[in-house]
Amino acid sequence: MTPRWPEGFLVGCTVRPLLAVWEVQAGGRGAGGVCDCPAAAEDAMFGVLDACPSGRGRVRYARLSWVGIGYVYGPTRLTAHRKDGVTVTVPGDAWEGLS
User: Fold this and answer.
1) Which of 34, 59, 63, 92 is least enclosed by beta carbons within 10 angstroms?
2) Which domain of life is it from (predicted)?
3) Quick check: helix, strand or coil at residue 80?
């Protein structure tokens, strides 16, 4: 299955591939990673988030910056908030909401 990337996110750039960046914040700790498959990034994010009683996570599209250090972030694919062992998932960006 071919990943579905957001339309127009740094169109025409073939040197810097599209990536999926995931991150989790829970209980004063954090975890994250990068891969070339959005579904794998979601699985990794949920794996970490599910091990916590509460926290938040998200998967965003990104490309390496032009200087090769850091990322240029695109739209958020998915945001998840976990409280009291229950996870609520929202498509798009809700990093600050649902707490």
Assistant:
1) 92
2) Bacteria
3) strand
